[in-house]
Amino acid sequence: MRFLHRQGRGQSGHLAGRAGQVPGEDASAGFHRVHQRVGAAALRQAAGRVAAFTSHEWIGDVDVPVAVVVTTRDTVVPPVRQRKLAEAIPGAEVFEVEGDHVACVAAAEAFVPALVAACRRVSEAAAGAGLEHGCEVAQGIADDCIVERGQQADLTVVGRDGQGAAYRTGLIGSTVNGVICKTAKSAVVVPTTAQLAGPIVVAFDGSPGSRIGANVAVQVATRLGEPIHVFVDSKDKGRAVARFDEVRGIVGSLPVPVHEISSTLGRPDVKIVDSAREVRAGLIVMGAYGRNRKTEYFLGSNAAAVVRTSPIAVLLAR
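Given the sequence above, the corresponding structure tokens read:
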């Protein structure tokens, strides 16, 4: 387990740029600029999704070391609610910052040390639980730093929805996009709505990337004891039969249940996400690249679409 916090040059100004706010621009001006760019309807939709989100049904089941950074003068998410969240997580430790909701940008000199301290405390707790761990502060371009450190690991895990998530449309954050395009390692992209518990859906199209994905899914399912659902796009019936035969040879020896899903209509990326929703999957596994790797920097088209739209964590296998 490795925690990497990226400390930008010039801290508050650099972080403000990452959040979509122009350095030196006040919050109202920044909001007006975002409003002009995305429109009132998109802002209302984003606000509705944020307001509807709740973790009360599952937050008490979190069983890994956790630290919560509380902004004590926050008027958007009141401190009492932040502390209530911390109290609901077994063993969570609170780190307070004297600042409001945008302290990570406007008061970076206070927020960053608290964040680093929280990461280090989680790292120490991981060590106490016997987990391999590390915590470090890196300077430079965020995605390059993450990719560089990721070369020493088997898997890189990144959150899909960053500080500007409420205003994004079909694109993921630039840092996340840079990481999953540049890394040579498998990566898990986690949206804010992910549960990270439940069956595993494997998207298989017979490409080299999907074979890698199926093998990775076997390893994950064996460790977690979760069932696997294999998705095959079956518009061509003969090809679909051959693909199911091939994937059975990869996952057939698993000590967990294996189910098969096929689809004859619609876009594969949409059907993959819909199938994962239906089985209440905790993870979608697919190859980072499909059959055409001429533009491999941009991922396969189905992989990119699933990462953008899935409410479930996606493991891009390499």
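The mean pLDDT is 77. Try to locate this feature in the token string yourself.
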